[in-house]
């Protein structure tokens, strides 16, 4: 877990504006150190997962952010009872989940007693400090 931020969660209605609002939530509440490195990928997967929840799920739609330091986990839940086609079945994924599968280190689905969650983990580019790698402030990658 990240020492800088706690897990963040927000709920959105079943609305065509929810993907945009969820992106604003991620931009505002992501970890200032770790999530900023992966912000573009986080915004992309959040938009795709929330759009899928709006189109195929049932409200309310929840978005959770969990910073793990080396990666950020995005979890989108809704009250729908169907699961998206499972990972590992290339021809069966919709466009949005194919994007998530291409961008994320890993992703999956979790059936809940009331609803479904789809989660993914986006790498931040940070190595754990125990490996002695410098932080982003002191290292720009290639110099």
Task: Describe, in plain words, how this protein is organized in 3D.
With 143 residues, this protein is an alpha+beta fold. It has a single domain, classed as Histidine kinase-like ATPase, C-terminal domain (Heat Shock Protein 90, 2-Layer Sandwich), CATH 3.30.565.10. It is built from three helices and five strands; from the N terminus they run βααββαββ. It has a five-stranded antiparallel sheet, covered by helices on one side. The chain is globular. The protein starts with 7 loop residues before the first strand and ends in a 20-residue tail after the last strand. The C terminus is likely disordered.
Termini, distance in Å?
A: 29 Å
Poorly predicted runs of 5 or more residues: 127-143
Strand % is 25-35%
Over the alpha carbons, how many angstroms does the gyration radius reach? 16 Å
Across the major sheet, the strand order is 1-2-3-5-4
Approximate shape? globular
Give the oligomeric state. Answer: single chain
CATH superfamily: Histidine kinase-like ATPase, C-terminal domain
Number of helices: 3
Report the helical percentage: 25-40%
Q: At CATH's second level, what is the architecture?
A: 2-Layer Sandwich
Structural domain count: 1
Give the integer mean of the pLDDT values: 83
The main sheet comes to: 5 strands, antiparallel
Briefly note the structural class of the backbone. Answer: alpha+beta
């Amino acid at each position: 877990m990240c020492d800088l931020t706690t897990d963040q969660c927000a709920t959105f209605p079943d609305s065509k504006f929810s993907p945009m609002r969820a992106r604003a939530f991620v931009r505002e509440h992501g970890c200032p150190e770790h999530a900023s490195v992966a912000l573009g990928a986080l915004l992309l997967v959040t938009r795709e997962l929330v759009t899928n929840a709006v189109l195929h799920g049932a409200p309310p739609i929840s978005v959770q952010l969990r910073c793990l330091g080396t990666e950020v986990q995005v979890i989108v839940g809704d009250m729908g009872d169907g699961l998206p086609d499972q990972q590992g079945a290339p021809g069966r994924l919709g466009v949005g989940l194919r994007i998530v599968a291409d961008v994320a280190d890993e992703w999956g689905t979790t059936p809940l007693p009331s609803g479904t969650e789809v989660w993914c983990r986006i790498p931040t580019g940070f190595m754990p400090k125990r490996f002695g790698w410098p932080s982003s402030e002191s290292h720009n990658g290639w110099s």
